[in-house]
Design goal:
Length: 77
C-alpha cells in the first residue's frame, strides 16, 4: 500500500492512540469509571491509531481516496 498519512496526521494519531491506551488501561485498573467493555474497545482503537501512525498507511483513507501525505503523486513516499 502507498503511504497516505502525513506528518501532522501521524502526530495526531499517535497522541490520540496514546490517550486511548491510557484510558483503556485505566479502565482495566478501575481508575477510570467506565464499563469493563470499554477497556478492550479503547485498547483496539489505540492499537489501530498507533499502527496506522507507525506504518503511514490507513486502509479507510485508501477506500475513501483521502491522502494527507504531502509528497507529490509521482514521487516516492
Amino acid at each position: 500500500m502507498q503511504k497516505n498519512v502525513g506528518t501532522t496526521d501521524k502526530r495526531v494519531r499517535t497522541a490520540f492512540g496514546a490517550v486511548l491506551g491510557i484510558v483503556s488501561l485505566g479502565t482495566l485498573g478501575g481508575v477510570v469509571p467506565l464499563p469493563e467493555l470499554a477497556a478492550p474497545v479503547f485498547g483496539i482503537a489505540a492499537l489501530l491509531m498507533l499502527g496506522t501512525a507507525a506504518t503511514g498507511t490507513c486502509g479507510l483513507y485508501a477506500l475513501l481516496g483521502v491522502d494527507t501525505c504531502p509528497a507529490s503523486a509521482g514521487g516516492s513516499r
